[in-house]
Amino acid sequence: MFKRKPKDPSVPFPAPSTSKDVRERESSYEIREPCRKRFCRYLYNREQNLFCGRSCKSWICIIAYSLLYLTFLCTYTLFFLYGSLSLIKYLDNYEGIDKIDLMTYSQHGIGLSATPTSVNSYPIISYKSNTNEDKKYVEELETFFKRRKRDTAFDLGPCGSSPFGYGNKPCVIVRINKQLGWSAKPLKLNSTDANIPPLVRDWMKADQQKLWLHCRGYHSYDKEHIGSISYFPYPPGFDPALYPIDMKSDSQLIAVQMADFTLGMSIAVECTLYFDGGSSSTTFLLYVTPKRKVILSV
Predict the structure, then answer these.
(1) What digits encode the pLDDT tens for the residues 112-131?
(2) CB-based contacts of 222: which residues, under 8 Å, 6+ apart?
(3) Residue 79 and residue 222: Cα distance in Å, rounded?
(4) Domains in the chain: how many in total?
(5) 248 and 227 fall within a common domain
(6) Are the C-beta atoms of residues 177 and 113 closer than 8 Å to each other?
(7) Quick one: 70 and 31 in the same domain?
(8) Which of 138, 195, 218, 274 has the most CB atoms within 10 Å of its CB?
(9) Is there a single domain that holds both residue 81 and residue 174?
(10) Taking Cα atoms as reference points, which of 245, 196, 241 lies closest to residue 216?
């Protein structure tokens, strides 16, 4: 009977005849081949001229498609943003409305805003005395007044023109934020609210038809170092007949000027609006450092 001779290991594998034979041969070959070699072969197959399993032409098509797709997305996004901003600008007069005016508030109160603010729009006024560091606040106030319509005159004293007291007596402009439909009645002289300062009660004796604004130090140590506060106009009250106000009109302004405060200390200032049935307040920080004197020793 015919006996099959054992397979000589030196004889190479016969060429596969079917796809199944090809897969079996590749799998058996991969088992014997180290992982490092297989990884390098995957990165670049020299025999078939493939990179990561793809030819150069295939990679060029994929990269070109990706670039075209990203270009389309960026163009579509920029076109959509440009169209939206243009629509807001021309229909709603976006440039003439302050950002803070677009805010809304609860029915129990109204918002106040203080100008100027820091670069990051935080309620912080910080600069070194007798230097040009306060220039940014002066420029912000100049821009603020340029945006406003000149149909109403406000007696703001030294706070109504540049440099707005900056240096030793900085000014802060306080206004009521716009809220459609909001109005308030002035305080009554016989009000039993214990939080009303005595100075506000003195103002009420002279005029009972105002929404009063009063500023003071937030904490006890702030009150010790805040120095003196002046108001323009005086006494500092908003005319309730101007409210409710529409978005095209300008809000009434009250200037608050601080002087004789302690240098080198962060002072928290709270300005509160008092009206019948409630109150609203805004807070900002004032930090003015003294300029260092150079002492020459002989």
Answers:
(1) 888 887 655 667 888 888 77
(2) 267, 268, 269
(3) 51
(4) 3
(5) yes
(6) yes
(7) no
(8) 274
(9) no
(10) 196
